[in-house]
Every structure is written in structure tokens, then in C-alpha cells.
Amino acid sequence: MPNVIELESQGEQVQEFFDSLPHSPGETLIKRKGRRPIIVVTPESEAQNSEWTSEKNERRFGLIQKKIAGNATPLELGELACLQEEVDAWIDKVAPRPLEEAEQILASLIDRILKKQSGSEQ
Questions:
Q1: Model's pTM, two decimal places?
Q2: SS3 at position 32
Q3: pLDDT beyond 80 at 51
Q4: Which whole-number Å values give the CA distances from 5 to 26, 44, 61, 78, in the listed order?
Q5: Distance CA 75, CA 78 (A)
């Protein structure tokens, strides 16, 4: 499994550097004098607004199986991440999760816990 670094948690200069890298699909080799190079993989991805298809889902399942088997390439892992983001966006579009009701239940449970704790402390 690849290491994941959230770019948003890095400094502004680091974010600007990565934004300046090529956005075309493939691998970018970053050479560092006297140190091991870094390979940045940019997977192929369709627009986030495109429809989700059974072909994309089959590809996603195949990539998940390769990941579990431990033989997915870095490019395939990047493609899987893009497909996963795309399917999540599609699900949110066609069948949004009812978060409002879940938030009300959570607030009710927290309220009950707090009442029990304050009652037991008295």
C-alpha cells in the first residue's frame, strides 16, 4: 500500500511545487542531488462530472482485487483512487446520504450521555 501524504497539510511552497508538476497521465521523476529520486504518478482520470458506468465499476473491482493481491502498480493505485473518488461523487449525486437525520440521532445520544454523567456525578 502506498504512503499517503495529504498535500493540504503541507506548506504553501510545497503545494505550489506540486501544482507546477505536469498534470498529464504518467510518471514524473524528481531528481535530487545525492538522494534517491521521487516518482510522482498521475493516473488517467475522466472528468468528475461524467456518468458512472458498469465498465468503470468493473475496472474499479479489478483494481481492488490487484491491490488486495499486492500486485497493483503505483499507476493502478492512482487510477483506483481516482475511480473511488468518482464513484463517491456519483453516489452523492444520485443517492445523497441522509446526514441530517444521523446528526440528530448523534446529538440526541450525546445529550443522553451528558445527562447520565451529570446525574451520576451529583
A1: 0.55
A2: strand
A3: yes
A4: 19, 20, 24, 13
A5: 5
